[in-house]
Design goal:
By secondary structure, the chain is an alpha/beta fold. Helices cover about 30% and strands about 20% of the residues. Strand 8, helix 6 and strand 9 form a beta-alpha-beta unit. The protein starts with 8 loop residues before the first strand and ends in a 20-residue tail after the last helix.
C-alpha cells in the first residue's frame, strides 16, 4: 500500500520486546504486493498491561486482528471469547481476530509452521521418533502438531525433555489427554534412538551456549531442527552439520505460518499467493548470508532409517 488512510485495516503485534520481530515487515510486504489496504504495526506491551491493551485496542473499529508475540501467547487465552482446540491443547495462541458479532477468537499456527518447514526441507517426521528439547509454549505447539493426526500421519513417538522438574511430564500428560499418540517425558536430553531432534529451548541464543544435546550420540540418519531465530547457526546446528547431518534453523517455520495467518484474517487470495511463492518473504526472514540457499533444491527426505 502507498499510504495509510481512514479506510486502512490495522493489525497489531503486541510483544515484549518487539525490537527484532519480523512478522510486521512480512505482512506489510504481502499487503503491498496484493494491493490490500492494511498495515501491521509492532507494539511494545509489558506483561502486566496485556489485558488492558487487548481490551482497549479492539475498541478501534479498524483494528481487525493481532499476531501475538512472546511472552503473551499463553496470557491472552483468558481474554478471548473462544479459541481453537489447538489453542486449548497448547494453552496459547499466536493470532487473534474479531468476528462479525464483535467476539474475540484465537488460534495457534506454530505447529503448522513447524511441520510445513520440515516438509520444505524434506525432513521426515511421520512415523518417526522425535525428541523435543524444551517443554514451553513453542514445544507444546510442536508436540501438538506431531501428535495430531491418525496413524501414519503423526510421529511414532514424541519425547520431551526439560531441565525444570515436572515440566516435561506435565506437557506430555497434557498432550496425551488430547491425542491418541505416544507422548512421554524423558529425564535426559539423550538423542540416541531418535530420527529427529528439535531444539525448543533458549540454548543457542547467546554466544558460548553449549549444544542443547550431545550430537555425537545422534543416529547417522537423524536430522535437527532448531527453532531459534537468533544466534544461528547455533552450536547444535553447527555440531550436527559437522557430522554430516541435516540441521536447519527456524527461519522457515516463520515463513510457513504466513498462509495460515492470512487465511485466518480473511485474505485468502494473498495466502494462496504466498503458498505459490514465498521466496520474497524468505529474503526478509533469512539472514543475508543465507539468501543463496533460498532457491537451493531440497534433497531426499532426511530422518528415514
Amino acid at each position: 500500500m502507498s499510504s495509510i488512510q481512514g479506510s486502512t485495516a490495522l493489525y497489531l503485534l503486541p510483544g515484549d520486546p518487539v525490537t527484532n520481530v519480523r512478522l510486521p515487515r512480512m505482512f506489510n510486504e504481502v499487503f503491498a504486493r496484493h494491493g490490500i489496504d492494511a498495515v501491521m504495526v509492532p507494539v511494545q506491551v509489558p506483561v502486566r498491561d496485556i489485558a488492558l491493551f487487548m481490551r482497549g485496542a479492539f475498541l478501534g473499529a479498524n483494528v481487525r486482528g493481532m499476531a501475538i508475540a512472546p511472552p503473551h501467547k499463553p496470557r491472552v487465552l483468558d481474554l478471548l471469547d473462544r479459541f481453537s482446540i489447538v489453542g486449548r491443547a497448547a494453552r496459547s495462541v499466536n493470532a487473534v481476530r474479531r468476528t462479525d458479532n464483535g467476539q474475540l477468537e484465537g488460534d495457534l499456527f506454530d505447529g503448522e509452521g513447524f511441520t510445513a518447514a520440515l516438509e520444505h526441507f524434506g525432513i521426515a517426521w511421520r512415523d518417526r521418533r522425535v525428541l523435543v528439547l524444551g517443554a514451553g509454549v513453542s514445544a507444546a505447539a510442536i508436540g501438538l502438531a506431531l501428535a495430531d493426526g491418525g496413524a501414519g500421519n503423526r510421529a511414532a513417538r514424541i519425547a520431551f525433555y526439560d531441565p525444570t522438574a515436572g515440566k516435561a511430564a506435565g506437557l506430555a500428560a497434557q498432550l496425551d489427554s488430547f491425542f491418541d499418540a505416544e507422548v512421554v517425558p524423558v529425564d535426559a536430553p539423550d538423542p540416541a534412538g531418535y530420527d529427529l531432534v528439535v531444539n525448543a529451548t533458549p540454548l543457542g541464543l547467546e554466544a558460548g551456549d553449549a549444544a542443547a544435546c550431545d550430537v555425537s550420540r545422534m543416529e547417522p540418519h537423524a536430522a535437527v531442527f532448531d527453532i531459534l531465530l537468533r544466534g544461528q547457526p547455533t552450536s547444535l546446528v553447527q555440531a550436527a552439520r559437522a557430522r554430516g547431518l541435516q540441521a536447519q534453523p527456524g527461519y522457515e517455520m516463520l515463513v510457513a505460518q504466513m498462509p495460515y495467518y492470512l487465511d485466518y484474517f480473511g485474505h485468502a487470495e494473498a495466502a494462496q499467493g504466498v503458498r505459490e511463492d514465498a521466496d520474497y518473504l524468505r529474503r526478509i526472514v533469512y539472514p543475508p548470508a543465507l539468501h543463496g540457499e533460498i532457491h537451493a533444491p531440497r534433497g531426499p527426505a532426511a530422518g528415514a532409517a
